[in-house]
Design brief:
Number of helices: 1
Distance between the termini: 59 Å
Largest sheet: 4 strands, antiparallel
Strand content: 35-45%
Helix content: 10-25%
CATH topology of one domain: Nuclear Transport Factor 2, Chain: A
Structural class: alpha+beta
Order of helices and strands: EEEEH
Radius of gyration: 18 Å
């Protein structure tokens, strides 16, 4: 793999709007350009001009563990918790 001559260049970016929050998934190169990592950012609008942001940096050696834990958590919520909540009656 050729080193990438870049500093913090986005190689992939995906935005997910979810109500009052927006999530950003950005793939960036390391300083050496020989490796990549994922930044997950949660952004919430606090006022007309102010946003609150939280970032999570995820490195390739943790992708599999992170993905498995996320999927396990979602599956648990869907199969164990949401089934116990009454759905609202539609009019």
């Amino acid at each position: 793999m050729e080193p990438v001559d870049t500093v913090q260049e986005n190689f992939f970016s995906k935005r997910v709007r979810a109500g009052k929050r927006t999530y950003f998934f950005d793939v960036k190169a390391t300083k050496s350009g020989k490796d990549f990592y994922l930044i997950i950012t949660e952004s919430r609008k606090m006022s007309e001009e102010k946003y609150e942001k939280h970032k999570l940096f995820l490195y390739k050696e943790d992708f599999k563990k992170f993905s498995e834990a996320l999927q396990e958590s979602i599956t648990h919520i869907e199969s164990e918790l949401l089934v116990n909540i009454e759905k609202p009656v539609e009019a």
